[in-house]
Design a protein that fits this description.
- The chain is mainly alpha-helical and 333 residues long.
- Helices cover 36% and strands 0% of the residues.
- The chain is built from ten helices and no strands.
- α1 packs antiparallel against α10, α4 packs across α5 and α4 runs parallel beside α6.
- It binds 2-acetamido-2-deoxy-beta-D-glucopyranose (2 copies).
- The site of one 2-acetamido-2-deoxy-beta-D-glucopyranose has 3 residues, from α4.
Length: 333
């Protein structure tokens, strides 16, 4: 019989010290760093935490349903001009019939982002002008699947029935839902964003605890109920659209930029409103080039995160200092 191999080996004190060093200088700081990272993620999630979804909404009279009529093309392009209430301190509406980098039929980017300034980063804060849905100029046509198929919304065509059904069942305009889907995921049901936002409408994980948000049907219905809850709380469509991207009243430029320290993608997109109202709703690809070669927006604050579009994972998270320490330890050992 062969002697059993010796497993036990006397661990010498040198190895012991290395183990202690390893635990003290690598494992513990890693755990610490990771918990900070988790805290930051949670902060993001709670910042984005929506109003609770109330399924009893479903049975209520559909206050907004009449306004769905506006989701079809209105005449020959934008001609209507309405008076909107605006805080005295806001820049003028400065709407233009044609969409440009910083304006369009629904007012200028500076009007929509009233209170946010890159030159006066800590002052003011977002003071959303008040526009109801029926005051908006909408040139995107969501009246038939054929219309959708020949528009910038064509990636949404496979989900046309779901958008229409959710719109009719819940009472929010289908074109608004589809515009979110284009802005958030390019109508890609498998998209996953920073903070785990999921699917067509990039719903935050707190909205997906009971449903699979990668399922287009679940995604669109949950999103429709969320939009309904926002508009019921305040019919100001500018505020609701901002909320979708994590904007809140009083949000300053500095607030937005604070996310740079830990997750570049956690920044709100400061061009979101321009892209949504004067891009998608006008049947213009908000991420494409205008005729003059320009892009919709002014701040472009997400450009530095990645070359990608609106969704993606955080790539700009700083390298934890434990990684450097690990290298140093390897070098010393
Ligand atoms: C509004 O438009 C006019 C003319 O295009 C321009 O001179 C003015 O600076 C604009 N105002 C704002 C607040 O952008
Ligand atoms: C939409 O609603 C219609 C009529 O109720 C129904 O026949 C259809 O199956 C629904 N489609 C989807 C995708 O839910």
């Amino acid at each position: 019989m062969k002697p059993r191999p010796k497993h036990a080996r006397v661990i010498n004190t040198g190895l012991d010290q290395i183990t202690i060093l390893f635990v003290l200088f690598l494992i513990l700081p890693s755990v610490w760093c990771y918990s900070i990272h988790l805290d930051a993620e949670n902060e993001l999630l709670s910042a984005r935490k929506s109003l609770p979804l109330d399924t009893s909404e479903l049975g209520r009279p559909l206050r907004i349903i009449e306004e769905m009529k506006y989701s079809k093309r209105q005449g020959n392009g934008p001609s209507a001009v309405i008076s909107v209430s605006q805080p005295a301190s806001c820049p003028s509406v400065n709407a233009s019939a044609k969409t440009t980098e910083t304006t369009g039929p629904n007012g200028s980017l500076f009007f929509l982002t009233c209170g946010i300034s890159d030159t006066d980063q800590y002052n003011g804060g977002w003071s959303p002008p008040t526009i109801r849905f029926d005051q908006l100029v909408v040139n995107a046509d969501f009246s038939s699947v054929q219309a959708v198929s020949s528009s910038v919304f064509r990636p949404c065509a496979p989900f046309y029935d779901i958008f229409r059904n959710a719109s009719a069942d819940i009472g929010v305009p289908s074109v608004l839902l589809a515009a979110f889907a284009m802005q958030e995921s390019g109508c890609n049901p498998y998209a996953t964003g920073a903070g785990g936002s999921a699917g067509l409408l990039q719903l935050s994980p707190d909205k997906c605890t009971n449903s699979n948000c990668y399922d287009p049907w679940a995604n669109i219905y949950i999103g429709a109920r969320y939009l309904k809850s926002l508009l019921d709380a305040d019919p100001n469509i500018v505020q609701a659209v901002g909320n979708w991207n994590g904007w809140y009243k009083g949000m300053t430029f500095a607030n937005v930029r604070s996310a740079l320290d830990w997750n570049c993608y956690a920044q709100q997109n400061l061009d979101y409103l321009q892209q949504y109202f004067n891009g998608w709703l006008q049947d213009i690809d908000a991420y494409g080039r205008l005729e003059d070669g320009g892009r919709l927006g002014f701040f472009f604050n997400l450009d530095e995160c990645d070359s990608g579009g609106s969704s993606g994972s955080s790539r700009n998270t700083p390298i934890p200092w434990t990684v450097y320490l690990y290298g140093l330890l390897l070098f010393l050992l």
